[in-house]
Specification:
It is a single chain. By secondary structure, this protein is mainly beta. It folds into 2 domains: about 80 residues, Jelly Rolls (Sandwich); about 140 residues, Jelly Rolls (Sandwich). Helices cover about 5% and strands about 45% of the residues. It is built from 1 helix and 16 strands. The strands form 3 sheets. It has a 7-stranded mixed sheet. It has a 5-stranded mixed sheet with strand order 8-10-15-12-13, with no helix packed on it. A hairpin with a 5-residue loop joins strand 3 and strand 4. The chain is globular.
Length: about 260
Amino acid sequence: MKGLQDDFQLSCSEAANPDAVYTFTTTERSRVWIRSFGQGRPTAALHLTQGGCGGTSVKCDKTTTSGFLTPTTVEPQILVEVDPGEYALLVDSGVDYTLRSSIGPVREVSGNDGCDAAYEIPPEGGIFKGDLREASDDTALRCGSVTSSGPHPDVVFTFQLDKALRVLINNEPEYGHGAPYADTVVSLRRGACEGAELLCNSYSSSGSSVMAGFDRILEPGRYYLHLDTEDSNSASPTGLYRLDVRFLPPSEAELEDADEQG
């Protein structure tokens, strides 16, 4: 941050740090994910505005601590859906930092009921919304809570990786639309849609507190993602879903860790 000045007061932070500005434009409704990583100390805050630096505030987030980075430090993060338009990101930081970001479209999905109709996820990822009430029960997964004899609908997505990437996939129930939402299971397979599972994670899995999903380094290849439903006390085994998919370049350290684990 050397040479930068403190030009802006962020709405969620009173810190008097130098700030930097980044801009981008979306031409369709999109999911924006941005996270900062400070060097030695955390970045103070991120503020996303629409219409330039002095425009309408979209979201502002600040770090949980002002001290040195520790394993429990949560640095600022923006995760939001935005309409088409021009946006500015203000970064307030007293230290040098790295930004990671992903911007992808929001898509309404239907008809991906089975391997032959798998929905192709584009290279930029995005958010994919659909209704499992329109699907049939075609697949049995090895994880998730299935205690009833009724149908547990599932849908299928597919994507191609031409190089190793960090892949983040989360499915959060789609609340507040006057329709049932689904507690879900995600299963990943490589090469063949009905092949052996590489990963399986559910809303009820140990360590999964909010969403079904995973964060892994994946090698090049064709992948198939099955989104299934499970039973719960709060949701029927079918309903609305909201799948968030991000493809990110892995760091050298992440690639080394993946090689050691694989």
